[in-house]
Amino acid sequence: MGYQDQLITSESEVNEKFKSIKKSPVLLNKEAWNKRMEKRIIMDKVARKIFSLSTVFALVILGILFYRIGVQSAGWLNLKFLTGNLSIFPEKAGIYGAIIGSVWLMAVVIPVTLLLGVSTAIYLEEYAKEGKFQSFIKTNISNLAGVPSVIFGLLGLAVFRRLFGLGSSILAGGLTLSLLVLPIIVVASQEAIRAVPNFLRDGAYAMGATKWTTIRTVVLPASLPGILTGCILAISRAIGETAPLVVLGIPTLILAIPESLMSDFTALPIQIYYWTLDTVLTPEYANLAAATIVVLLVVLLLMNSIAIFIRNKFQRRY
Amino acid sequence: MLTNGGNMQSKVVYSVENLNLWYGNDQALRDINLKIEKNEVTAIIGPSGCGKSTFIKTLNRMVDNIPIVRTSGKIFYHGTDIFDKSVRLEELRTTVGMVFQKPNPFPKSIFENVVYGPKIHGIRNKKQLMQIAEESLKSAALWDEVKDRLNDNAYGLSGGQQQRLCIARSLAIQPDVLLMDEPTSALDPIATNKIEELIDELKNNYTIAIVTHSMQQAARISDKTAFFLMGELIEFGDTKKIFTTPEDKRTEDYITGRFG
């Protein structure tokens, strides 16, 4: 009884049931298809060429860049350059101070952005109720990520330098750069947190876990690779930023090595910027700028590879 | 560990009275009244979208996580209304465990999965945690299969093993009630059979409410059966009676496979 009543039992019944399908008229003209086939295959090849050429174009530009700075920095990039102090004489100049300055900047940017960025992302994804307010904030954080870095420089100038009286210290520069990359970390963390499937949260809630316990023990561990990747990408953005620091009035010719958060400092991109400007006066400065670019690029590539490594190593299956 | 003293001795574990539930403006549960008794397996059956999953998720207030849900009526758990402001959600859920439709172990080791509950509730002693893990895994009939690889990732287990791991995880906080939301719907027949045997074993110590798509399963493992249809409880009673001499025409139609 039951559903078995509806089962088809004999072949004749099958034929009866599918008769209508068998007899459906031929609506398709395969001849016409084959005529157009040639054209579509050509289009396919053209498309393939366009896309591969686009990629080649980008690679060629990158190649030219590498070649230029390679040639220009050749002979200038050595241990003495890395460990030497600044000097107005090109052959004596080194970027030790700028490297230390950049490291100090990151020492401010990393904790500030991690704490503020991840906390904001957790709030928006886990606590904030869905609604107009939440989507308003989300949209504006995305907007903030698109604001030109010069504007952030002006903000830093007005708030950190003038209002808080931090001068052109590492703290002022670091906080300004933190603001600049904060939206990147927030958005990346939000995406990582959103990618944690709800059934994992339910598992924790069903064991009597509070929201925070669930976030701490389930959501954050699962989203950590994504968050870290976002952080490293944001930091590599911060390490290469020039405009906000220029607007802040970070000086270039600093002979003292920075010693604390309140020290004056210079950073790698600033050094590149001023040396490039002064090439008119001293042509060798171009070589110094190129050598500094190589250092900065190596640091960036290193950080990006760490990001990729983390992403691949800790990618999780659910 | 949560023990409420004499209160917990009562035969009736859950007493649901005039329960209504809405998702926004859609009413998902209509005036539900039923009692779930101690050490019994109560099966909840019905076609898709009849509210059976919603109902079971109301029993440990998992529905609270959905912002648009509203409820009215009362659910007494050993005499206490679980919707009362004085009831702590976290406490309720340590007393009422839940196993989900899709096995959902955490991306951690087998051991860490089992002791997750005890750990978040503050047990740090390694020896005690190990004991809890062994006990729970044995109760979930998984110990022999995993005892040599407790530190392996839980996702290396088969689907059926994962589901038993989730059961072990629920048992580790020593609940009184186990809610199961179609625990075998993602599993093959052999794994399903193992879980069913396990449920039969577990009912000696736990009160179990299980949502199931399979009427055969309900008939095999449950003492009481509740038939839901479009948010209403159509019929509730001894499983034997429901499956042999149902009172309502709609119940009869459903269990004989005429719809659903």
Content of β-strand of chain A: under 5%
Q: SSE string of chain B, helix = H, strand = E?
A: EEEHEEHEHHHHHEHEHEEHH
Instruction: State the helicity of chain B in percent bands.
Output: 25-40%
Residue stretches of chain A low in confidence (pLDDT < 50, at least 5 long) are 1-5
| DSSP helical segment count of chain B | 11
Question: How would you name the CATH homologous superfamily of the domain at 20-104 and 177-255 in chain B?
Answer: P-loop containing nucleotide triphosphate hydrolases
Question: SSE layout and pairings?
Answer:
The complex is a heterodimer of chains A (318) and B (260).
Chain A: H1 11-22, H2 30-73, H3 79-83, H4 96-127, H5 132-145, H6 149-163, H7 170-194, H8 198-205, H9 211-240, H10 243-248, H11 268-277, H12 285-314
Chain B: E1 12-23, E2 26-37, E3 41-45, H1 52-59, E4 69-77, E5 80-81, H2 89-95, E6 96-99, H3 110-114, H4 116-120, H5 126-139, H6 143-146, H7 159-171, E7 177-181, H8 189-202, E8 207-211, H9 215-221, E9 224-229, E10 232-238, H10 239-244, H11 249-255
Parallel strand pairs in B: 3-8, 3-9, 6-7, 7-8
Antiparallel strand pairs in B: 1-2, 1-4, 4-5, 9-10
Helix pairs in contact in B: 5-7, 7-8
Account of the 3D structure:
The complex is a heterodimer of chains A (318) and B (260). Helix content of chain A is 73%, strand content 0%. The longest helix of chain A has 44 residues, at 30-73. In chain A, 35% of the residues are buried. Chain A is an all-alpha fold and 318 residues long. Chain A has 2 domains: 31-73; 79-314, MetI-like (MetI-like fold), CATH 1.10.3720.10. Chain A has 12 helices and no strands. In chain A, helix 2 (30-73) crosses helix 12 (285-314). Residues 1-5 of chain A have low confidence and may be disordered. The two termini of chain A are 42 Å apart. Chain B is of the alpha/beta class and 260 residues long. Chain B has a domain at 20-104 and 177-255: 3-Layer(aba) Sandwich (Rossmann fold). Chain B contains 11 helices and 10 strands. Chain B has helices at residues 52-59, 89-95, 110-114, 116-120, 126-139, 143-146, 159-171, 189-202, 215-221, 239-244, 249-255, and strands at 12-23, 26-37, 41-45, 69-77, 80-81, 96-99, 177-181, 207-211, 224-229, 232-238. Chain B is globular, with a radius of gyration of 18 Å. The termini of chain B are far apart. The model of chain B is unreliable at 1-6 (pLDDT under 50).
